[in-house]
Design brief:
- Keywords: Membrane, Transmembrane, Transmembrane helix.
- By secondary structure, this protein is mostly helical.
- The protein contains eight helices and no strands.
- The longest helix has 34 residues.
């Protein structure tokens, strides 16, 4: 009984960390969208699609992830956990909420000056990376977008996972570009560097946890 109680408390802490991480990812994403240097490839694609469908970013994120979620259930349900659901539901809606909030508080030209944009970009990127690393470190399931990459890589035994990931992200970038999303330096950096950087940060967070 004592072991079960400890396990339950540990799981509750991990769920709390996951929820906090995905909300902070949404917060950082709301800044990245306004700074117009680009976002991560998945968000860039979904921003373009949501505008064309006249849906909020958060609503389209849920619908898009739901389609991928069904595919993950079919091909590798071990990828699914509480973290999967938190990512599906909270990242997009958190980004929508914080964008709405800051539109109320901040003037429309708050991020016009290049110096201010760069100054805000650095902490926004760091927050996104650390939040994503925490999300991965607690190991409560993968985001559907990420889980699909693992599934594809498991089928393509002779292709390195890194190449599969880059191709997946670049495809998302292309779709986003064709639909009018900003594909900037941040998008390119995230497509090629986000995985290794998050892995390095995740290792340090794992030691801390």
């Amino acid at each position: 009984m004592k072991t079960q109680m400890k396990f339950g408390l540990k799981e509750k802490k991990k769920i709390f960390l996951v929820i906090a991480a995905v909300i902070l990812m949404g917060l950082s994403l709301s800044f990245l969208i306004r700074l117009n240097f680009g976002t991560d490839p998945c968000s860039a694609m979904n921003l373009g699609i949501s505008r064309h469908l006249h849906l909020t970013f958060g609503t389209w994120q849920v619908l898009f992830n739901l389609v991928l979620f069904l595919a993950v259930i079919k091909y590798d349900p071990s990828q699914i956990g509480w973290g999967t659901l938190a990512n599906m539901l909270l990242v997009g809606y958190s980004a929508d909420f914080f964008k709405w909030l800051f539109d109320l508080i901040l003037p429309a030209d708050a991020f016009t000056a290049l110096g201010i944009r760069i100054a805000v970009l650095i902490p926004s990127l760091l927050l996104f990376i650390v939040s994503a690393a925490v999300y991965m470190a607690v190991e409560l399931g993968s985001a559907p977008y990420d889980a699909i990459v693992f599934i594809i890589a498991s089928k393509l035994k002779k292709v390195p996972f890194r190449l599969v990931r880059i191709f997946w992200d670049m495809t998302a970038c292309l779709i986003g570009f064709l639909l009018g999303s900003t594909i900037g330096i941040v998008t390119v950096m995230m497509a090629f560097l986000l995985g290794p950087v998050i892995t390095a940060v995740k290792e340090r967070i794992n030691r801390f946890l």
